[in-house]
Specification:
transmembrane helix; mainly alpha; 9% strand; 297 residues; 7 strands; globular
Length: 297
């Protein structure tokens, strides 16, 4: 297998990009290191935001520990369910996440359910919690996509655009290589390469821009929960077009549509309606939240 990755139109050529690093004889996947780093930074961001808004950071450490576990489980289940043909003959492979296979939307869904349950148990405001973790989730998505870079996955169709990424064909899954890519295979020094859209990079940059926007806006929000709605709307808007470029889409059975692209489109519409409606009625919404807020002893 060849390990070089290039962005030829940018003049970038990386000679050896491995998938793992050896520490004291143990092989640790870069994918796992990146996910772990994103989780730790997520804790830092969420607790800092909790302090800024007068909440108890300890609540976020408690919820975060549970949320991370169920988030990873949710992300893996989402991926496995819609890629069942890859796992049905080898069920133990479901437990192997070193090679990737975590779907962000599955993790977000699990995180939302965790917050709702935790807020109910701890008598906290779920909308306030959602706003507090919005930046942490975006940070996780922005960094997490670089795990796809090291795994040579989550890329798009053939392109010769400015950001085109060139990969050795023997370093990617054959199922992700399309006919159009094969028609444009380049042979360099006896090695065959495909050239594709680096959709992991597009999504990471999109999340970075959205993170900056929400960070600036957070002090000007009109009601609790607005930041999270804007996050879901903004992320969905980016995912709709980025997902359309990918060649490893998870397909919804029967209808045959990319499930994440469909879900992103639904979220854009629903979140857009909620954002517009609550912007007009946020005063009434705030009064209702105060009336239903648990009495602190």
């Amino acid at each position: 297998m060849h390990y070089d990755i290039s962005f030829p139109n940018l003049g970038i050529h990386l000679e050896h990009v491995g998938k793992t690093i050896s520490i004291f004889g143990f092989e640790i996947a870069y994918y796992g290191i990146i996910i772990g780093t994103a989780i730790l930074l997520g804790f830092v961001i969420a607790t800092a935001e909790a302090k800024r808004t007068g909440q108890d950071p300890e609540n976020y450490l408690d919820m975060g520990m549970i949320g991370v576990v169920f988030g990873i489980i949710g992300a893996r289940l989402y991926y496995v369910i819609f890629s069942w043909d890859m796992y049905k003959d080898n069920l133990l492979e479901i437990l192997n996440i070193r090679e990737g296979g975590l779907a962000i939307y599955g993790g977000v869904i699990a995180a939302v359910l965790t917050v709702i349950i935790a807020a109910k148990v701890k008598h906290l405001s779920a909308p306030q919690i959602f706003d507090t973790i919005a930046l942490a989730l975006l940070n996780g998505q922005m960094l997490g996509r670089w795990g796809n870079f090291f795994n040579r996955e989550a890329f798009g169709e053939y392109t010769d655009s400015l950001f085109a990424m060139r990969l050795p064909i023997d370093a990617v899954r054959s199922s992700d290589v399309t006919e159009q890519m094969r028609m444009h295979i380049q042979s360099i020094g006896g090695v065959e390469y495909i050239q594709v859209h680096p959709t992991f990079l597009y999504e990471s940059l999109w999340c970075c821009a959205l993170l900056i926007i929400l960070f600036v806006y957070r002090k000007h929000k009109k009601y609790e929960g607005e930041l999270f709605l804007l996050y879901m709307f903004g992320y969905g808007l980016g995912r709709v077009w980025i997902e359309g470029l990918r060649t490893d889409q998870l397909i919804l059975p029967v209808v045959g549509l990319p499930v994440s692209q469909l879900l992103a489109g639904v979220l854009v519409v629903v979140m857009g309606i909620l954002i517009v409606y609550l912007r007009k009625h946020h005063s009434r919404y705030a009064m209702l939240a105060l009336k239903t807020e648990p009495v602190k002893e």
